[in-house]
Design brief:
With 401 residues, the chain is of the alpha/beta class. It contains 13 helices and 13 strands. The protein has a domain of 255 residues: NAD(P)-binding Rossmann-like Domain (Rossmann fold, 3-Layer(aba) Sandwich). The strands form four sheets. It has a seven-stranded parallel β-sheet, with helices on both faces. The two termini are 22 Å apart.
């Protein structure tokens, strides 16, 4: 199959196995080029196939030599379509880990389900005995409650009043106005149910009941706050309510983990191009501006650079950097520097379709988006016939989402 990118809206419907492999290998090389992490031994990553979850697994494995179990919900290839990028990423990760004799096993299925929690618990019990780090990095648009069977769908809306602002069609290079009506109370509640902390609590409580959490265990969930510019659609919108719920869950989990001398933490990370962020109005234009400024300053980071800093500066050091007033770890510190945000605020009112390429790094945004799916990767011949069907060694009897 000759695999090329097919963009529909903010989604790419194809992925390239060799491109994804090279992208994962680049992250591994980055970690290998830095000093080792003296940290976790046995790690569970929930949401392990893309973005910050994948970066966490790479840093734990190749930075600390940890054994990792990854949980994700990805699509295997068939004769008519490619696998999802997360499938290819996970196959690449396992291949690279096994090549070096490092333990890595994966579970594919609905992380919100009781069945997946049971499968993960059995694998931990069988191979690791206990885990000392649990990363929670799910970014799903829907969730089925395992107790009631009700399906919740999240929405990206403001609360209280309509939102009017700018956004960008990155692939057409068009800046345009956007109007988003406010969410209903039901939409707010549903978004909290999907993106809040309830499932994180269920995972940790289940593992604790099974005695699978080691003394001193840490569990980390990822979040984003962003600048005032995006607050109406993000921090003060439906997603913001979900993030408030996530913080409440962190506080409750920390109390529950006290007998183990454990802790539940939230890491607030920098804005990066992900499949999730591409769907949020305003955010892609903000990211394109942010990229230009941070690249000029030499402070730009992707997922792997940030997660390496999270491990080395915050989680596994005798002198961790200070948290903010809410107790959050701030890996977005370089994004939120006053001079960076002042420049974005000054440029924002001026930006139009005509000056987009001059004022923003729209090319860098698009390039990062393509790279999520294994495209625009140096050294890959995209005209060459490749086999889209790639195995993940540790997965048996795969169910296709």
């Amino acid at each position: 199959m000759i695999i090329q990118s097919k963009i529909h809206g903010f989604i790419c419907t194809t992925a390239h196995p060799e491109g994804c492999f090279n992208a994962v290998e680049d992250q591994v090389k980055f970690v290998r080029s830095r000093k080792p992490v003296k940290g976790p031994v046995n790690v569970l990553v929930i949401g392990a196939s893309t973005g910050y979850g994948l970066a966490s697994r790479i840093v734990a494995t190749f930075g600390a030599g940890a054994k990792t179990i990854g949980v994700f919900f990805e699509r295997e290839a068939n004769d008519k379509r490619t696998a999802s990028p997360g499938w290819y990423n996970s196959a690449a990760f396992e291949s690279l880990a096994h090549r070096e004799g490092l333990y890595a096993k994966s579970l594919n299925g609905d992380a919100f389900s009781t069945e997946m929690k049971e499968r993960a618990a059995e694998l931990i019990r069988q191979d690791l005995k206990q885990v000392d780090l649990v990363i929670y990095s799910l970014a799903s648009p829907r969730r089925k409650d395992p107790k009631t069977g009700q399906v919740y769908c999240s929405t990206l809306k403001p609360i209280g009043k309509p939102f009017e602002g700018k956004t960008v069609d990155a692939f057409r290079g068009e800046v345009k106005d956007v109007l988003i009506e406010p969410a209903t109370e039901e939409e707010v509640a549903n978004t909290v149910a999907v993106m809040g902390g309830e499932d994180w609590e269920m995972w940790i409580d289940f593992l604790a009941q099974q005695h699978l959490l080691a003394e001193g265990v840490k569990t980390v969930a990822y979040s984003y706050l962003g600048p005032e510019l995006t607050h109406a659609i993000y921090k003060h919108g439906t997603i913001g309510k979900a993030k408030e719920n996530l913080k409440a869950s962190a506080d409750k989990l920390t109390k529950r983990l006290m007998p183990l001398k454990g802790e539940a933490l939230i890491s607030v990370d920098k804005a990066v191009v992900t499949q999730a962020s591409a769907a949020i109005p305003v955010v892609p234009l903000y990211i394109a501006l942010l990229y230009k400024i941070m690249k000029e300053k030499g402070t730009h980071e992707g997922c792997i650079e940030q997660i390496y800093r999270l491990f080395i500066e915050h989680l596994y050091t005798s002198t961790p950097l200070e948290r903010d007033a809410d107790g959050f770890i701030r890996i977005d510190d370089r994004e939120m520097q006053p001079d960076v945000q002042a420049r974005i605020a000054a440029v924002w009112p001026q930006i139009t379709t005509e000056n987009l390429e001059q004022l923003a790094d729209i090319k860098g945004y698009c390039d990062d988006f393509y790279r999520l799916f294994g495209f625009n990767i140096e050294g890959i011949d995209y005209e060459r016939d490749v086999n889209p069907q790639v195995r993940i060694d540790s997965i048996q009897g795969v169910g296709t989402p």
